[in-house]
Amino acid sequence: MTVTAIHIASEYGADVRPVTEAEAVAGKGLMGDRYFGTTRQVTIVCRGELDRAAADLGGDAIPAGATRRNITVDLDELPRTHGTPLRIGEVELQVWRECTPCQVMETSVGPGARAALEDRAGISATVVTGGTIRVGDPIVVG
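Below the sequence we write its predicted structure tokens.
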């Protein structure tokens, strides 16, 4: 169970760009990302949920950056309970809430994506202990 991709967008509406690592700051989020300093802080999506959404759409795999989430992990499912602890590499996070898919998914993923991603669009988390998150870092839930 590892991080397979990291994406950052410098401001709301900006294109996400892939990076190999990101600096997480306690209580703030990922340096340089649009959510830095907000309650949303870090967004995470998992490959298993994306694959099920893609199957519902009847198409190819959904690319990691298409959902505009910061971190993609190779778990089958993410925890949704507020306060659930997560560790990614050296960074400690807590689940804040589930992310709901927005209308942008219809463009970034394709027609029907918003419905296919319902309950599969990832989670938002807050950063408890900062550090560097890297592609390949292990993720531990609980």
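The chain has a mean pLDDT of 93.
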